[in-house]
Amino acid sequence: MKNKKLYFLGIGGIGMSALAQYFLAEGDEVYGYDLTPSPITDMLTQKGAVIHFDDNVDKIPGGMDFAVYTPAVPRTNAEFQFFLEHNIPLYKRSQVLGHITEQLPSVAVAGTHGKTTTTSMVAHLLAPEVSIAGFIGGIAKNFHDNLVLGANPVAAVAEADEYDRSFLTLHPAVAIITSMDADHLDIYGTRENLVAAFQQYAAQSQIVLVEESVAHEIQHPHKLIYGTGPDADYRADNILLAPNRATFDLCTPNGILPQLQLRANGLYNVLNATAAVAAVLELFQGGHTGIKPEHPILIADKLSTFAGVKRRFDYIVDREDFIYIDDYAHHPEEMHSFISAVRKIYPDKHICGVFQPHLYSRTRDFAPQFAEVLSQLDEVILLPIYPAREQPIPGITSEYLLSLVDNPHKQVLQKEELIPYLQAHRPDVLLTIGAGDIDRFVEKLGHL
Q: What is the DSSP letter of 244?
């Protein structure tokens, strides 16, 4: 088959860029548009993609086989309309991911939080001993990439995104559900509708691993529970938590994996590791042709070398006089887990959190919960809401959210004010939190 000529609308997105890399590795021509340059678009350009940053149909080459788009691209985008008007096949990112992964036995990781770290752990446990095509929603530090692609893959690993019901294009051999917190209510309306979508995702899977707190809400003939409780099929036991380290025994249906070591913080990462190990063991036991490596994977050795994911409890600076941690958390539950873990590690230090709310609708829907979590900090700085795909909602602003925060040390800063303020008022511990473009500050803040 001839090499394809493909176009990506929103090519700089973390999920889109992994697909773009996949097709580049296949020898296809890749073109694309994104709103702004970024390290990801720079990387894609170096690998051969041709990218521009203005909504300009004149820059779309002729002869495209098909185009891929992300839901973050508005339908009013001129280039999106160009493909519709010219009857060029136009596919959602999730459709393309579903087509790629359906050709291989796969592990898919879904959940309103925890899925990127867990997906990265599964990929790390498997590769390179098992040749995989791995699509991760973050930059896994072990691979320095969001795509893991071996020669002639025999299995796939994919992050399964619940937004816009994208994960319903996947039919995994092993599915993981890490959590089902109310989120994306602009899509689902209610948590009940969100849970129904997760139930459909589970029904499309051969085996489903569900975190114990939500296991009762998912029905499946081959459901396995993971967690720390007595009813868990995969149970983390004898857990010892320390800064940047966890030790635990993993009780499985076939015996105990003792004294597993993990370089990560918090109980939630022990749970993520439990799910990842369980998924790999279930995949090996599923009888899928070609999956078992020639030499056994040493689970304990692999897990102990897991390096984490960029923007997930990501230490940027770790000195006696200054600690700076960056995290992608953008839902109240994620933020609570993150901030609570930081507080346990540094109980006597002044902790300042800089939070950039993501989406007007999410800020509106969870304002009291966000405020409660932020009130746990010693100092709160809010940046303006990152709109992503949304238009403003009257009355929903960072100033409104700030008014709900019970903390005397709080303020809203514009982006251009952040660096000068922190240069003059550097805290003991600095946290940057959010899923928007707050990551553009990380390098500069690392030099405070």
A: T
Q: Cβ(288)–Cβ(153) under 8 Å?
A: no
Sheet holding 90-92, edge to edge: 50-52, 29-33, 5-9, 66-69, 90-92
User: Alpha helix locations (H) across 87-220?
Assistant: 93-101, 115-126, 185-188, 191-203
Decide: 55 and 79 in contact? Cβ < 8 Å: yes
Which amino acid makes up residue 387? Answer: P
Query: Whole-angstrom Cα distance, residue 71 to residue 244?
Result: 36
From-to residues of CATH 3.40.50.720 in the chain: 5-91
CA trace torsion 15, 18, 24, 30 (10° rounding): 20
Whether pLDDT at 52 is above 90: yes
Positions of CATH 3.90.190.20 in the chain: 314-445
Both structure tokens of 43: 């990387």
First to last CA, the chain: 53
Amino acid at 53: F
314-445 is classed CATH 3.90.190.20: yes
Region of 412 (left: φ > 0; alpha: ψ -120 to 50; beta: rest) is beta
Q: What is the mean pLDDT of residues 20-43?
A: 94
- CA distances to 176, 244, 316, 338 from 432, rounded to whole Å, are 28, 18, 10, 11
For 309, counting Cβ atoms within 10 Å of its Cβ (0-12 exposed, 13-18 middle, 19+ buried), the class is buried
| 269 — pLDDT class (breaks 50, 70, 90) | very high
Distance, CA of 174 to CA of 134 (rounded, Å): 14
Which CATH number does 102-304 carry?
3.40.1190.10
Distance of CA 379 to the CA centre of its chain: 27
pLDDT above 80 for 1: no
3-class secondary structure, 445: helix
Please name the CATH architecture into which domain 5-91 falls.
Answer: 3-Layer(aba) Sandwich (3.40)
DSSP per residue, 387-402: -TT----TT-SHHHHH
Tokens 């998912």 correspond to what residue? 218
Measured from the Cβ of residue 45, the count of other Cβ atoms closer than 10 Å reads 14
Q: What DSSP state is assigned to residue 66?
A: E
Instruction: Give, as one character, the DSSP assignment of residue 309.
Output: B
Position 175 scores a pLDDT of 98
Q: Quote the CA–CA distance of 194 and 331 in Å, as a whole number.
A: 15
